Amino acid sequence: MLITVEVIRDGAYNLLSEMERLDLIKINLPLQNNIISDGKLSNKFAGKLHLSDSAYSLYQKNLQESRSEWQRDIC
User: Fold this and answer.
1) Mean pLDDT score, 45-74
2) SS (H, E, C) 7-23
3) Beta-strand (E) ranges in the chain?
4) Which residue pairs from 23-30 have beta carbons closer than 8 angstroms and sit at least 24 positions apart in sequence?
5) Are residues 31 and 44 in contact, defined by beta-carbon separation less than 8 angstroms?
6) The pLDDT of residue 11 is above 50
7) What sign results for the dihedral spanned by CA atoms 42, 48, 1, 28?
8) How far apart are CA 42 and CA 75, in angstroms?
């Protein structure tokens, strides 16, 4: 279950840290370094697939085929 919590007082961080230490919760802080200033998704997600060379080639082939479908007239 995922719950978003807004921390109002700094002392709450100590309580949350203790709960995490006891394996009651897991704290996921937002990653500020993942935010790309120019906003390009290609920069943000480059290299995130972790595919083998053959799987990447197949992915690229399927991607090109799907893009060519966009250019085709449906009527």
Assistant:
1) 82
2) CCCCHHHHHHHHHHHCC
3) none
4) none
5) no
6) yes
7) negative
8) 32
How many angstroms separate the first and last alpha carbons of the chain? 46
In a domain, residue 1? The reply is no
Average pLDDT over residues 25-49: 69
Name the domain count of the chain.
1
Residue 59 lies in a domain: yes
In the block, residue with structure tokens 């370094």:
33
pLDDT at residue 27 tops 50? yes
Please tell me the number of Cα atoms within 13 Å of 19 on its side-chain side.
9
Tell me the residue type at 22: L
In-domain check, residue 53: yes
Range of the domain at 67: 11-29+38-71
